[in-house]
Amino acid sequence: MHTGSRSLRAAAPQVPLRPVPLRPVVLRAAADAVPVVAAYVPFGLTLGATLAASGISPLVAWSSSPLLFGGAAQLLAVQLLGAGANVAVVVLGALVVNSRMLLYSASLAQHASGWSRRARWGGAYLLADPVYALAIGRFTKPDGGGDARLRLAYYLGVGATLWTAWMAITASGTLLAGVLPDGLRLDVAAPLTFLLLVLPMLTSRPAWAAAATGGLVAVAASGLPLGLGLLVGAAAGIAAGALVGGRRG
Amino acid sequence: MADLLVLVAIGVGTYLMRAAFLATAGARPPAVVTRLLQYVGPAVLAAIALPALVAPHGRVTSAETVPALLAAVVAGVLWRLTRSLPLALFGGLAAAWGVTWLLT
User: Fold this and answer.
1) How far apart are CA B16 and CA A124, in angstroms?
2) Which of A4, A45, B48, B62 lies 20 to 30 angstroms, CA to CA, from A72?
3) Cβ proximity of A162 and A33 under 8 Å
4) Residue A127, CA distances (Å) to A20, A41, A204, B14, B23 in order
């Protein structure tokens, strides 16, 4: 994609610029999303099976996929609901888990200034971890992923592909619950997926401090009532990151 | 029904957080917020992942903990070497599967 240089050359306002076709960008987005979809299959299947076994109605549990569109919060919310945890703890826990979306929102906004209001409000729904990772990976390349129109096409292409796949994978897991063999060790898939989400974030010492503290405190606090260990660990990790990062963080 | 309402509440809250800065493109969050937000991802995700790896199903047992931790190490090494999410994930799962098979 050399759209950046092309539009520079055509900077004179009167020169009609043939719009770059969107189709290749959307196809590229779908192709980029395929390996990520593959990596989410084990976690999605486990999550689906967990949803089905949670003790709340399977359809209600699965509705967390379109409602939340984020596996970590879905897993937490449905497990806590199934175990009869306090409703306030469930909502607070899931929102804390998803509060990283605020960061994604702020980060992506810097690349979305040319998008229409409708595109920004609509696109926000699709802003999950892998969608953000793929989009930001492309938008921070030298050509910036093309003009606003091409960036939106790419973002929506990735988002729609991953959304559709996630609905299908979690539904399959829900339907296949009990059929999947234990020997596959799919239960490891969920924490492994979260671990692989963390690793790319560990680009600085404060980030390491946040992750190490958050993880270790959560282990130490795992005896606390449902969901609280996570909250305590997360709070300790954020504090540790801010402490190590100091004022300049 | 109450469960569905809880999920809807979380869904609305999550959507509003996703839209917070994107919908008002250009508005930058305050510096303090940005500074704390960058640690939310690592802290929260590690706080979910580590307890589940150390004590799968809430218990530390050699039959569960060893394969899970080995899977984590293998996935971490593969990710560092290849930067490939699928490769690291399936490599880690294969390691867990292999050790479980050896131990039983």
Assistant:
1) 8
2) B62
3) yes
4) 25, 19, 24, 10, 12
The structure tokens listed for A221 are: 């606090």
Alpha-carbon span A117 to A89, nearest angstrom: 34
Q: Hey, what are A34's tokens?
A: 């395929």
Q: Tell me how far apart the alpha carbons of residues A44 and A170 are, in angstroms, rounded to a whole number.
A: 5
Contacts of A213 in chain B (CB under 8 A): 43
ipTM of the complex: 0.89
Give the model's confidence band at A248: pLDDT under 50 very low, under 70 low, under 90 confident, else very high.
Answer: low
CA distance A249 to B2: 42
Q: Is B6 on the interface with A (CB under 8 A)?
A: yes
- Judged by a CB distance cut-off of 8 A, whether residue A37 touches chain B is no
Tell me how crowded residue A233 is: count the other CB atoms within 10 A of its CB.
28
Looking at residue A248, the DSSP 8-state letter turns out to be T
A71 contacts on B by Cβ (under 8 Å): none
Whether A210 sits inside 8 A of B43 (CB atoms) is yes
B63 touches chain A (CB under 8 A): no
